[in-house]
Write a structure and sequence with these properties.
Largest sheet of chain A: 4 strands, parallel
Number of helices of chain B: 10
Number of helices of chain A: 21
Structural class of chain A: mainly alpha
Mean pLDDT of chain B: 96
Strand content of chain A: 5-15%
CATH class of chain B: Mainly Alpha
Radius of gyration of chain B: 20 Å
Largest sheet of chain B: none
Order of helices and strands of chain A: HHHHHHHHHHHEHHEHHEHEHEHEHEHEH
Oligomer: heterodimer
Shape of chain B: globular
Shape of chain A: globular
Largest interface: A-B, 60 and 57 residues
Number of strands of chain B: 0
Mean pLDDT of chain A: 96
Distance between the termini of chain B: 51 Å
Structural class of chain B: mainly alpha
Number of domains of chain A: 3
CATH architecture of chain B: Up-down Bundle
Helix content of chain B: over 70%
Low-confidence stretches of chain B: none
Number of domains of chain B: 1
Radius of gyration of chain A: 23 Å
Bound molecules: iron/sulfur cluster
Helix content of chain A: 40-55%
Amino acid sequence: MTNDEGRMTKDQLTREQIWKGLEPLRGNGDSKLLTHLNSCVHCGLCAESCLFYMATRDPHLTPARKVDLISSIYKRYHTFTGKYLPALVHARDLDEASAREMVDLLFGACTLCGRCTMHCSIGVDISYLVAVGRNMLSNMGMVPATLQSTVQAAVETGNNMAIPTGEFVETLKWMEEEVVDEVGDPAARIPVDEPGKQILYTLNPREPKFFPLSIAAMAKIFYVAGESWTLSTRMYDVTNYAYFSGNNGEAALIANRLWNEMNHLQAGSLVLAECGHGTRAFRWESPNYLERGFPFPVMSSVECIAAYIREGKIQLDPEKIKTKVTMHDPCNLVRCGGIIREQRYILHQFIRDFVEMTPGGTDNHCCGGGGGMLSMSEYNERRMKAGEIKAEQIRISGAEIVVTPCHNCVDQLIQVNATFKLGVQIKTMAEIVADALIIRNQNP
Amino acid sequence: MAVSDAFANMTWYEWIAMFALGICLGALLFHFSRLIRLGRPKDRAPAAGRVAPAVIYAMTGAMNPAKKETAYLHLPTYVAGILYHLGTFLSILLFFLIWTHLPLPLYLLLFLSGFLVVSAGCGIGILCKRSFRSELRALSNPDDYLSNILVTLFQTGTLLTLYLPGLRPVYFLLAAILFLYIPISKLRHVLYFFAARYHLGLFFGRRGVWPP
Ligand code: SF4
Ligand code: SF4
């Protein structure tokens, strides 16, 4: 039954919305989706793997409920039992109620951290299914406005914080002065838009906006390593929030800009700034969004710094940092990105008192700020509650400095630090490395 | 009685069970061939690790209870689940034994019966947990209960029929219902479990996360 506007009177969604919403469940031509949609056995054992359930003990927020929500809609339209005996498997229509629940659970109670996936008793790729659910909601135009505005800013202005180019350039000039002061070399520079360099370096827009010293930190490292590098004013944003919103078209558009800038500047390789999801979205997802392989090498700044140490291009002073240090592993970089050892290698070079978080590495708990949560202010309370798990880990570690190679994690950890009164310092990898860097003047 | 004799002397209820088994296997084959036809995802990102060792790890090391929170935080449920699944595979094996009337040495019969008592008990325990734990109840649908009840009944039926041949008609009809139910219910995870582990190995292997 429809009303005058062609809307379904019962469920308020238009037929077109439902059709588009169901599109991702029709399959993308491989067996992965079909497999994971058919695998959950409702054992419920994954609950304790998820920070949202652990922090709230709300049975509605378990990974299993998220899987069930998507697979119950899948069953309704694609399985014999779901079509003819829906009550038997709780198969659900895609309607206003299920779509609203999807928004709340898949956007508002999941950071796509993938921890539950690793622990699932069957092996259901839960975060992948959540991403499919987000894709459904994106097709229906139901991405939370707060997250969508971040994506929109990136699409329209080239960076997710809509920083005007003039302001960006000013910040870089200011940071260049910082670098000059710190290395004691008036010739030290932060190169901008210079073609033919070995490296095109990217930034998380939070850096020029809120944490410009982290740009200076990486510039110091490049300086000491004698690197040939540049930033771009046209496209420097490493983030890709469309990966979180589930809009593959916009994700492709954002990723393509970085490809184009590499071509434009004819840089040798692309170094992705400290950003877990940005690294994942570009390194692992963009070739699939754009349906082509990389014609240039891509690496994260963590890998880049580790390589400088190995090659003897930079040296770190083990006397500089004497306090206890721990590390938070960004989920997208570590569990879902495979960068596990490099950050440990770096820290072990100069941190005397390093302690791992428990659990850590690929089993780490998410900080609570991933999945676009930081931009969805309507879920702030839940996000901070979820951050309690990380706060406890930090407290138990006894560390005074928490290092994390991800600006989104830094943001969340700063808030966790304040909320739970941890009294620790939060630093990026570049920042802590720059603190211990042995400076050699490159132009004596 | 040899298999050829078993075929020659099949009763109506055995025919029904075998027919149901054929449908079950055919349907599972359909699911399997669909997965094979669809193939693995095309990933254009350059791999950071090797897939084959990761898939092996996904099926072995990653299943180690010490590595899985779902196992070590829920050890009694995990152990019950393992025993229950072993009991199911044993029951399927014994289904053919019962059908062919092949005799078992007494010690083996007693051992297998004991195992079935334990595994069916585990099935009942898991069912109770699903029924009484509010968060599990909220997650469950009728299929979850029915699947458990059918499998537990099948195990119990196997056990009883080993000693009471008069139960054969009921036993074979029960087996037929179970076989017909497998492909349309969550019991098809007998197939999808392996597919899920494969995809997990593929994903974490390409990304250089597995094997650790
Ligand atoms: S552990 Fe896996 S199979 Fe069990 S409920 Fe969670 S997602 Fe489903
Ligand atoms: S991916 Fe992370 S946040 Fe999402 S359900 Fe799993 S454990 Fe929870």
